[in-house]
Design a protein that fits this description.
The protein has 130 residues and is of the alpha+beta class. Helix content is 17%, strand content 28%. It has a four-stranded mixed beta sheet, with no helix packed on it. It has a four-stranded antiparallel beta sheet with strand order 4-5-6-8, with helices on one face. The chain has one domain. A hairpin with a 2-residue loop joins strand 5 and strand 6. It contains two helices and eight strands.
């Protein structure tokens, strides 16, 4: 039995990562329930890849985002270059080969389609440091 997404695609057809278009501000993270969060590249302080490329941790002044999945090396390299694109939670079992994103673990609050919250988070964090 193969995994079938809500869009009735086989796991081999599901896309968890799209490279960045030149005009994009920063990485866009889309959860299975449709929550979206865009983060500004310049706020990324550290990217870490661990657990045999199954855990990518992105550190920001206002918290961290953990991306769990399979073969996340491409995401790590793009994040290090400031070129991380659109990352989607794909859920379900990972395909046997290639990049797969199981889930995000947000270490900060998210609001649907809320770019302004990134600025609020950063302002609050920088205010605490002063």
């Amino acid at each position: 039995m193969s995994y079938v997404s809500p869009l009735n695609l086989s796991s081999d057809e599901v896309v968890c990562y799209l490279k960045r278009e030149a005009s994009q501000l920063g990485p866009l993270f889309i959860s299975l329930n449709g929550n979206r969060r865009i983060l500004v590249d310049s706020l990324l302080t550290l990217a870490e890849l661990s657990d045999d490329e199954r855990l990518l941790t992105l550190h920001y002044p206002f918290g961290q985002l953990r991306v769990r999945g399979h073969q996340l090396g491409e995401l790590f390299e793009d994040a290090r270059r400031g070129r991380l694109g659109e990352v989607r939670e794909c859920g379900g079992p990972a395909r046997s080969e290639g990049l797969w994103v199981d889930r995000f673990e947000w270490g900060f609050p998210i609001e649907q389609d809320d770019l302004a919250s990134v600025v609020k988070d950063a302002t609050r964090e920088f205010g605490r440091l002063q």
